[in-house]
Design a protein that fits this description.
The protein has two helices and no strands. It is mainly α and about 55 residues long. The model has no long low-confidence stretch (mean pLDDT about 85). The relative contact order is 0.07.
Amino acid sequence: MAGLRPIQIWVPDTRRPDFAEECRRQSRLVAQTDMVDTNLQHFMDEALADMEGWTE
């Protein structure tokens, strides 16, 4: 109606018995990647600093 349209996304089933362990596994992978990719963290820090001066 306002230029928006519905989307459907698939998310993990939180009722699965291995849900918590899968969350931990994925979190560890992300943390390991973040420690290796310092350029990405620097880029994100600069982008955040640029956004801090913006107002709507």
